[in-house]
Amino acid sequence: MNEIFASVMLMVVLLVLLSGGVWVGLTLAGVAWFGMEFFTARAAGDAMAMTIWSSASSWTLTALPLFVWMGEILYRTNLSESMFRGLAPWVNALPGRLLHTNVIGCTIFASVSGSSAATCATVGKMNIPELKKRGYTDAQIIGSLGGPATLGLLIPPSIILIVYGVSAEQSISKLFMAGVLPGLMLAALFSGWIAVWALLNPDKVPKADTSMSFKQKLYEARNLIPVVLLIASVVASIYTGIATATEAAAIGVAGALVLSASQGALTWKSFQASLFGATRLYCMIALILSGAAFMTLSMGYIGLPRQLAEFVGSLNLSPAMLILVLGIFYILIGCFLDGISTIVLTMSVVLPIVQAAGIDLLWFGIFLVITVETAQITPPVGFNLFVLQSMTGKQITYIARVCAPYFLLMVLALAILWVFPEIVTALPARM
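^ TRAP transporter large permease protein, sequence as received from the core. Prediction below:
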């Protein structure tokens, strides 16, 4: 009975603080302090200091600011322009033609960014004007950008996979490898949908650009070589075991600086801007993680995770039904919270339930990230929707509607991963 009263009070405090505009990290710490102070005998101040220090000093977490910095450096290069020039000649023969540059471009940039919003903004900045100029409809341009841009959360190096790995105490390197094949599968589903739509609506697809010879296509593809080499060096160093995720992040930063310098984009001003941008983003994430770590401790002392796990266990849900319920729960909560907040806010309660059901935490991490991806294109708090609105001037409701097919494709991907879990576990098992 005490646990029920405590959970109700904590929920009230949480909602009051969030609705009051308090930062998510401070809200989590505030709720945790309230719980420790009023529902346990442990000194709240002492517990908060020790927990926040231990969470912030984690060596595993070092990879996060490095990958964020790598993305910030590349954000300021001519990467998106190079991608369009390198990809366009190769996709003209496909149904849907240049719309595929959005999918492939997002897949490539996701591999060096780790951020969904950065992927959406960077690829959109180049592709939207180019595709409009060639006569593609707004609906298809926006939809084929908003959906695939979510791959920034899944394809390594992924910021949110690092957050999950730290929260669930899972290997970051194995999580990165687990995200590769599902990410490529999602990209294939997105391109497949564009092809099907183009075959059903041939009159809405502009004619192909001037055809090029194979030699000319190869010449244009030279623009992709630097970024492909950077991706390969980061992923290969992790897969082969030569480097840990943190060391691979350092390799990525060094490669990004070299690539930026070779394009003439590396100046003292751009270097400072990338460093400050990465610092701001990481500080926001670190504050959320610190608050979440304190909240996890508070929940443990109060006994809420154990009580909830016992309650869910008493329902005798099958693993499939549990995953279905959790999927719906995360999609709904993702409509109101960003991905990182969603994960750190729920880990202390959800992980014991998932472990009790015998579900592989590596597989669950990828499942969780894909459900969080859907939240990037669902109103009212879909980050990609806001990015696209700022670039196109369209209403949020319109953007959400044209992105809806890609939301359904992500739900389909979750079903496929449940039936074929080897898509997630194959690469980590061979490391």
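Residues 268-302 form the longest helix (35 residues).
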